[in-house]
Design a protein that fits this description.
By secondary structure, this protein is an all-alpha fold. The protein has 5 helices and no strands. Helix 3 (49-57) packs across helix 5 (99-117). The chain is flat, with a radius of gyration of 20 Å.
Length: 125
């Protein structure tokens, strides 16, 4: 479910980081989700079983904050308004809170598949 990340590749090369950071900052601003008070992981669709399991593993406060942000953004969208600038999500507040749980669920699923595919043979004496 999770996509490959090129961030590690870019961050290891200072010259590439210098080129890509302004583009990345522009893209985050142009996407507009921060102006609605959302974080990047709030944009992940919840239809997948993997995402559902990851959402169940969130701490209660983080799960409550996620629902609040999504409802507030939905209300802003219905009224065709943006939040006041002081309520926008700041770049330092926009961290991946759900992605580690998604990666953990995917790793467990891969491990489960590997164990189920394993063939056990008895040693002959």
């Amino acid at each position: 479910m999770s996509q490959p990340h090129i961030a590690g590749f870019i961050l290891k090369r200072p010259w590439l980081t210098k080129i890509m950071m302004p583009i990345a900052n522009w893209y985050c601003q142009a996407a507009g989700y921060r102006q609605l008070g959302l974080k990047m992981d709030d944009l992940i669709p919840e239809e997948s079983e993997t995402i559902q399991k990851a959402l169940k593993r969130l701490p209660p406060k983080e799960a409550y904050d996620r629902v609040f942000r999504i409802r507030r953004a939905f209300q802003c969208s219905l009224s065709h308004q943006l939040l006041p600038k002081d309520q926008w999500t700041k770049p330092e507040e926009d961290y991946m809170y759900l992605t580690p749980y998604i990666e953990q669920v995917e790793a467990e699923a891969r491990e489960r598949d590997d164990l189920e595919a394993m063939k056990v043979t008895r040693k002959k004496r």
